[in-house]
Amino acid sequence: MVFYKKRRCIEGLAAFTIFAFFGLSALFSEAGQNLSAGCAVDMAPRTPEIESEITARINDEIMIAIIAQNVTDLDAYQVDIVYDANGLTFLKSLEETQDNQNLLKINGGETIYMPPKHIREGTVRIAGALLGNHTENVVSGGGVISLLKFKVLDETRKKDVCLANVLFPDSTGKGDYATSLENGTILPVDNSRPSLDFSFTEPDKDGPVSIQVKIDFSEPVAGFEKNDIRVSGGEIDTFAGSGKTYTFLLRPEIEGDIQITVPADSAHDDSGNGNLEKNAVYSFNPNHPPSIFGTPPTAVYANETYKFTPKAEDPDPEDSLLFNIENKPDWADFDIKTGVLNGIPLNSDIGEYENIRISVTDSNGDSIPLPAFQISVKAIENTDSHNHDKTETTASKPDDDNSGGVCFIESVQR
Ligand SMILES: [Ca+2]
Ligand SMILES: [Ca+2]
Ligand SMILES: [Ca+2]
User: Fold this and answer.
1) pLDDT in tens, 68-106
2) Ligand 3 centroid to 264 CA: how many Å?
3) What spacing in Å lies between the alpha carbon of 195 and ligand 2's midpoint?
4) How much is the CA Rg of the chain, to the nearest whole Å?
5) What pLDDT digit, counting tens, does each position of 227-264 carry?
6) How far is the CA of 270 from the centre of ligand 1 (A)?
7) What is the set of domains in the chain, with CATH numbers?
8) Which of 109, 130, 329, 363 could form a disulfide with 75 if both were Cys (CB 3.0 to 4.6 A apart)?
């Protein structure tokens, strides 16, 4: 992966030029204008890209490259490298390696590469130049101008390697300071083990019984597969995911608690740290539909009370029940909490009330109806010979009967 993160290191102005540093000014050819030149730290010189970050462990010896960029007719350079002296020890600098030819040499010129100079704690200065005054040897473009080797003293924190006072001088003693600088960083070693969390999405009550399970790791992991997940009481379907997030469908095989486990070291992070074990329990309690019973009276005399109370149950202890009615007669009231249908029809209500439907619904929306029924509201017959059946009706003797006759209550069972 290639990063191009810029960092600035605070560094005092270099008080002297490369000429004071070398004392070799007479030997230099003339550099071109390098006002737009840049310089970068490549933390991994063996790859062609410029990497701004690497990870290194304590006691590792790391080589970094200093890259001149966008130079014109370059024949000399001077660069200060400012590093974290508590986390790194500077070991040596090199003009070039087998893998990295020095930019100044690409046109066949001879060079001088000065020994690195520790100008203060945590700052080393490097410099190099073409020898002689051969304009055909000056170079343009970009490439390695120096390599530096450090030893890592501390792997627990980030350590920066910054550029300062990057000077591309000319033979007059003046130089152009590169203003576009790309620094490097040594990242701390990752010793942390990935952890993970489960989240569950409740099944759609109308769909097939499956629970959407999401696993979120604390950092990207590799090597995590369906077979890494142990499930007791269910099956895994349609496993997918990468990096930090994975999903699958859990198909329950039992009612009650389903155990899910991701064992330790099922997956690992970029540094090879295996994950911590994680257990979860999903309580699978599918809804059971309610049931409703009762035989509504199907006839009532005008001016008498009609009352029907259905009985309903639900196996799920958490569920509460609500009743509903369709085609309720206008003369009756209906209580959605008890299901009671209750009223006194008047003479004006005499007639047939058909297709009355009472149903009960549980907290999960499952609904069960009674068979549709009808109620006949009849005129009172002026006779003594009616039988009473009060099993489902509440009889009440009228204290005022407009018809003047004797009142009887009739309950007609379906
Ligand atoms: Ca590289
Ligand atoms: Ca980690
Ligand atoms: Ca239920």
Assistant:
1) 999 988 889 999 999 999 999 999 999 999 999 999 999
2) 39
3) 9
4) 45
5) 999 999 999 999 999 999 999 999 999 988 999 999 99
6) 20
7) 18-187 (2.60.40.680), 196-283 (2.60.40), 287-414 (2.60.40.10)
8) 130
